[in-house]
Amino acid sequence: MTTLLWLMTIQGVMGAFDTLYHHEFTERLPWKPQAGRELFIHGLRNLFYGLIFASLGGLSWGGVWAGVFAALLIAEIGLTLWDFVVEDQSRHLPPSERITHTLLAINYGLVLAFLAPELMRWETLPSGFHPHDYGLGSWIMYLFAAGVWGWAGFDLLRSRRFRKLTAVPSLHLDTPNQRVLITGGTGLIGSRLTQGLIDDGHQVTILTRDKAQAAKFRGPLTVIDHIDDLRAPVDLIINLAGESLSGGLWTRRRIARFYDSRLGITGALIDWIARQPVKPKRLINASAIGIYGRSETEIFDEASAPAAPDLATDLCTKWETLALTAQNHGVPVSLIRFGLVLSVDGGALAQMLFPFEFGIGGRLGSGRQWISWIHIDDAVGMVVHAANAGLDGTVNATAPVPVRNAGFTRALGRAMHRPVVLPLPGFVLKRLLGQMADILLLNGQQVLPARATHSGYRFRYPQIDAALNALFRGRM
């Protein structure tokens, strides 16, 4: 192959890596409403790229058409610059994606440098399109052309995914105009709570390390990055801060962050409460159903005792024990033990979407492990219900009908209109993910929301099919 085709091959490989690893797997752009414009640009740019690959593989643009091809190359640069601007406006790019984009830009510059003499040669040809053949090099270009054209159509269709979304259900605290402090207010559950409570007319303050994320909220909001910056009294504290358990491999450093991110901020909140002359009326503290341990046969509710210690039970037990010390200062505490929160915006479900969207999803391990799940709207609703109903102590935030993993994946396939044909063996997951696979994926428990049900909470989505269909309605 010529040097030009080698450079285009490198461009194609790096572009495929950027698309699959960053756009699809880690950043999950097709599932983020704010990424609609970026997906449209990607689709349009890939149409151009496909034409460039196909032409370099087997077609010379002669005469005046050489100028048209040059204009095409310049237009691709314009689309790339537009893409850079939109990306910086809509999301925070990880370092690996910025490096990849830089390498793509450098390599594309080399492509243009080596292509310039070829364009000058094309200009001397009679006007029209002239076939040429570089053997294997041509077929590699055709392969890349087919790939980027196919992905162009995919991205253009998915850029329309969020244009007709249903409104987010409103939240309502029975006591009006409350002063609410939310930690983890830019996270999965916190974001929905923050916006809902702002819309309900409350004075909301969020404690967050990422102030830039707070720009996404509509309405009056106070943002602080340290609890000591909070001077005014608070009526309600909702503590959701904590490193996500499903965000990556459980290295020693990440496990340490699981503890530090939860116990550190909770300890700081307790110290702040102790110093206040006017105490909050309630602390609502997040926890997780992992505290019950794992079983295929036992059914757990709030009266069940914590299981023998493993990482999940130890983490939850220490977190809850620390939060309960707020009672020593006269502040009632609600402990919300969340199950698997279903949302396409983040959490464990979001990590599953990549294989399922391409029709290669399936059950995990035996498929017999229980999944105690809850739709994001009910997860948020449960927090508000605990405040309104004055539920002290533990409250399970799970739907009333748990499902086994095999049933869950079949329901996910139905909601996404995709086959469920490729099971992932347990030993593979353990090899890839280690302790995370054993605790989060391959073992589960049936956890029932007894206190929420008995205190009158009405689930919006008690059944898995209705919950998943609501999440994917208009998006597939």
From TrEMBL:
Similarity annotation: Belongs to the NAD(P)-dependent epimerase/dehydratase family. SDR39U1 subfamily.
UniProt entry keywords in alphabetical sequence: Membrane, Transmembrane, Transmembrane helix
Domain called DUF1731: residue spans: 424-471
Lineage start: Bacteria, Pseudomonadati, Pseudomonadota, Alphaproteobacteria, Caulobacterales
Transmembrane segment boundaries: 136-154
NCBIfam families (UniProt xref): yfcH (TIGR01777)
Native organism: Asticcacaulis aquaticus
Transmembrane among keywords: yes
Protein name, UniProt field: TIGR01777 family oxidoreductase
UniProt xrefs under InterPro entries: DUF1731, Epimerase_deHydtase, NAD(P)-bd_dom_sf, SDR39U1
NAD-dependent epimerase/dehydratase domain mapped to chain residues: 180-389
